[in-house]
């Protein structure tokens, strides 16, 4: 049974969370580098790399993936300042998205050589975690062909809406970045971007779908439970910081 160390780091500025992820990724890459330098590659892979799962939320911010298009940001710098929204170009995959209060952001830092060395399969597993969690609330999440993330009514023309965005980076099979689940998110902030670069679809949240505010702590517990199931791992709380 693989162990994943969990931390809830609460509300944190996007760049600080990014820097923290990079440090965890680098620690694993350093271990792997020593392995390959010592010509261990012909032996069974048994490195003691460390798996992490971070939960957090961010103050209002738009992030643009490395393959994204800046024209999908629909406001200029002065308007961003008026809205009190930060902006970052990041090294994850995908296009532009929004992070803010009421969202649960998950950052898994996993060594996929202990799981499956297939990035597509990894993404489908992340989606499966969200789909199983949403089912607890009676929300029927699914996938949209040709797109990442979790969608509602994905195949119904004019009804498809995204409830969870995803974008990752993978270096030597170690992951970072992850998913952003709209729980009690203020969806008006998506009006200033073309979310994920998709022009003919909308976004939604758990609160909007259920018509009430959702207990975010309960959602976190369920996400951890489903993550354990899908990734066949034990999640151990390393340090818990209460969200504000």
Question: What can be said about this structure in brief?
Answer:
By secondary structure, the protein is of the alpha/beta class.
N- to C-terminal distance: 33 Å
Low-confidence stretches: none
Task: Please tell me the CATH architecture by its name.
Answer: 2-Layer Sandwich
Shape: globular
Rg measurement, Å: 18 Å
Query: What is the makeup of the main sheet?
Result: 9 strands, mixed
For the structure shown, list the relevant keywords.
alpha/beta, 244 residues, BirA Bifunctional Protein, domain 2, single chain, 12 strands, nine-stranded mixed β-sheet, 5 helices, globular, three-stranded mixed β-sheet
Break the fold down into its secondary structure elements and pairings:
Layout: E1 2-11, H1 14-37, E2 51-57, E3 61-64, H2 77-83, E4 86-89, E5 96-99, E6 103-109, H3 119-136, E7 141-142, E8 150-152, E9 161-171, E10 174-182, E11 202-203, H4 206-210, H5 216-231, E12 233-240
Model description:
The chain is α/β, with parallel strands linked by helices. The chain has a single domain (2-240), classed as BirA Bifunctional Protein, domain 2 (2-Layer Sandwich). Helix content is 29%, strand content 29%. It has 5 helices and 12 strands. The protein has helices spanning 14-37, 77-83, 119-136, 206-210, 216-231, and strands at residues 2-11, 51-57, 61-64, 86-89, 96-99, 103-109, 141-142, 150-152, 161-171, 174-182, 202-203, 233-240. Helix 3 packs across helix 5. The mean pLDDT is 92.
